[in-house]
Design the sequence.
């Protein structure tokens, strides 16, 4: 029913979406989020500058004022929905009157992130147009493609808010939530257009329940991990070194760490049963990715907050989320 070209293009779109997540994580750990102080342009240009001499002398004041105006408009929106305290805190955030010095590396790191976002967004747009003209009679597929297109547009706009608010922590968490939602929908689209009969995963009721539990915990873990990272950023900002972090970690960190071991236990049991009874490769891959993801977490906790390890920790967590998403879309009980 669906052409091979259409199927392949949906996989390409998924890869581009993942690349945006990878690039966004790299931007986060390298502190490049404010490399471009405005959006969608970068320093008012479609191709960003490579030298500070290309910028006016008052560029800091100029972009601080623009950012404050955008944040005020966003604060009015969330205040309308009853979040008046959050809106006031955002308006009065002292970070909004700070502007970083121009750094060409950070500028181009953020710019590449935006370019990947542009490519991913256009891929999702092409999928919607493709479905509209050829597969629009499939109403579920049409609705999902339209929803994902809307979410990509919203994600792009909210990305500008993340930048304008000078990377206020809770905005980063929301940004991640919508990234995961876009991935989940794109994977569901891929599942709908695939040969489902050959892709079904038939398991016992016990394994079925355990897989769903693992999926839900993994989803929650993504946000707990983001909050832990934000807490560490705050400790670092006030001058507390890694060796003293343990004295300040809150309950969130211990839940995050405990849930990690719980997922490991669950997926170890699922992996064991799979090797004995089912031998599905996708379950094997989920277990391998989990082990790698947990190892990167151990390194972060006990060795150092190495930027590349931080990046790997998030990336493998998102990959695990994607694999588990595909599993829950396909599993059936015996």
Sequence:
């Amino acid at each position: 029913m669906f052409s091979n070209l259409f199927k392949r293009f949906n996989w390409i779109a998924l890869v581009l979406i993942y690349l945006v997540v990878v690039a966004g994580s790299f931007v986060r750990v390298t502190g490049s989020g404010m490399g471009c102080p405005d959006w969608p342009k970068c320093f008012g240009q479609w191709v960003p500058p490579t030298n500070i001499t290309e910028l006016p002398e008052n560029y800091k004041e100029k972009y601080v004022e623009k950012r404050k105006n955008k944040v005020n408009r966003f604060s009015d929106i969330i205040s309308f929905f009853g979040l008046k305290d959050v809106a006031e805190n955002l308006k009065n955030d002292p970070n909004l009157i700070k502007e970083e010095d121009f750094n060409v590396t950070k500028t181009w790191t953020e710019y590449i992130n935006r370019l990947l976002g542009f490519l991913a967004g256009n891929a999702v747009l092409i999928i919607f147009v493709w479905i509209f003209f050829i597969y629009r009679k499939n109403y579920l597929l049409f609705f999902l493609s339209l929803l994902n297109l809307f979410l990509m547009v919203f994600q792009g706009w909210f990305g500008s808010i993340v930048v304008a608010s000078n990377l206020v922590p809770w905005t980063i968490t929301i940004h991640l939530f919508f990234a995961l939602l876009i991935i989940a929908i794109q994977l569901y689209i891929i599942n709908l257009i695939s040969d489902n009969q050959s892709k079904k995963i038939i398991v016992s009721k016990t394994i079925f329940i355990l897989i769903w539990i693992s999926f839900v915990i993994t989803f929650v873990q993504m946000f707990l991990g983001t909050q832990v990272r934000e807490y560490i950023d705050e400790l670092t900002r006030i001058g507390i070194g890694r060796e003293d972090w343990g004295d300040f970690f809150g309950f969130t960190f211990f839940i995050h760490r405990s849930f990690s071991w719980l997922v490991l236990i669950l997926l170890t049991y699922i992996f064991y049963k799979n090797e004995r009874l089912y031998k599905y490769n996708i379950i094997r891959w989920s277990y391998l990715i989990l082990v790698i993801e947990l190892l990167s977490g151990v390194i972060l906790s006990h060795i150092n907050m190495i930027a590349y390890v931080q990046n790997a920790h998030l990336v493998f967590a998102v990959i695990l989320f994607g694999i588990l998403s595909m599993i829950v879309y396909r599993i059936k009980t015996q």
The mean pLDDT is 83. The chain has two domains: 1-194, 197-334.
